[in-house]
Design a protein that fits this description.
313 residues; alpha+beta; 5-stranded antiparallel β-sheet; 4-stranded mixed β-sheet
């Protein structure tokens, strides 16, 4: 896993220490101010593309001042490319690099993380002269390392921590309030994942949507029909949750009596529910998970359901 190897851990610590020195020197009061401080120190301009016309205008503007590298920007933005960083031939107002962040369509939710991903590239590889691409390819080790660094910096714990003690119960509303206050352009999944992994109490963040099991996907590819069901497609636990050996396997079907199921496609007023449940409600092929009383909070987010699961004491 990225982040556990010593070389990766060293890079994360190196970048975090560099940022912490800036915090001590300039004393930013929010994550947004931290971003402004970091980009100014790095000499990095941020250009955001919200629509096709923005991209055309940006390319024309930079070509007009002799920045020929921007001629290829339009073609370099593929479906899985979220940002590019280019070194300017002529620095502008002390900035030698430009990060072009693609926020068109569904990419908008990755804006905050994409910016910090490109910052990570510049912190780790300051001497590179060509563009850097945020591909989103989970199999590219370099990009995964940059993601690990970005995750640490984009949600710096000085501002992005619920501050709960060992006995405090986390809540989705608290997660969302913190995200909206400190990193409103960050995706829910990235922000909530960070908060869960920093909790000092057992908790599981789960995302459910209509999906097929792997065997069913293979059947569909072979021409056989299959019906998508509401399943867990993503789950990550806090350190204490993992230490206790608790888990919900990926693609496991959501119990119909769970509030997660009720929230998905639920009636008006059921977009956000919470209830007492038990881990042994979850079963697959006749096998149930171990029994444990739970408190489950679920909220509908588009076609998905985000759930926060904690032990009930």
């Amino acid at each position: 896993m990225v982040g556990r190897g010593e070389p990766v851990g060293y890079l994360i610590r190196h970048c975090r220490e560099w940022v912490d020195r800036l915090i001590s020197e300039f004393e930013p009061t929010s994550l947004q101010q931290l971003l402004e401080t970091v980009t100014a120190k790095l000499g990095l301009l941020i250009e955001v593309i919200d629509q096709d016309a923005d991209l055309a205008s940006l390319v024309s503007r930079y070509l007009a001042v002799g920045e020929g590298g921007f001629a290829r920007v339009r073609d370099d933005f593929a479906e899985r490319t979220f940002a590019l960083v280019l070194r300017l031939r002529k620095p502008h107002n002390g900035c030698a690099h430009v990060a072009v962040i693609d926020c068109r369509g569904s990419k908008a939710s990755r804006k905050w993380f994409s910016i910090w991903h490109e910052i990570a590239h510049l912190l780790v590889e300051p001497q590179l002269t060509l563009d850097y691409r945020r591909t989103g390819d989970a199999h590219d080790e370099v990009e995964r390392v940059m993601d690990a660094i970005a995750g640490e910096l984009a949600f710096h714990p000085r501002w992005f921590d619920l501050g709960l003690g060992e006995g405090g119960r986390p809540a989705l509303r608290a997660f969302e309030a913190l995200r909206l206050r400190e990193a409103p352009t960050a995706s829910l999944q990235a922000a909530y994942l960070t908060l869960v992994t920093r909790l000092r109490t057992p908790a599981l963040l789960l995302i459910a949507e209509l999906a097929l099991k792997e065997s069913e996907r293979r059947s569909v590819e072979g021409g056989l029909p299959a019906m998508p069901l509401l399943r867990a497609v993503f789950a990550i636990g806090s350190p204490t949750w993992v230490q206790e050996g608790l888990y919900i396997p990926k693609t496991m079907r959501v119990p119909e009596r769970s509030v997660i199921f009720r929230v998905h496609g639920g009636a008006w007023g059921e977009e956000h529910l919470a209830a007492e449940e038990d881990l042994d409600w979850w079963e697959s092929q006749g096998k149930r998970l171990r029994s444990m009383p739970l408190w489950v909070e679920a909220a509908s987010v588009g076609q998905r359901v985000v759930a926060l699961i904690t032990p009930r004491t």
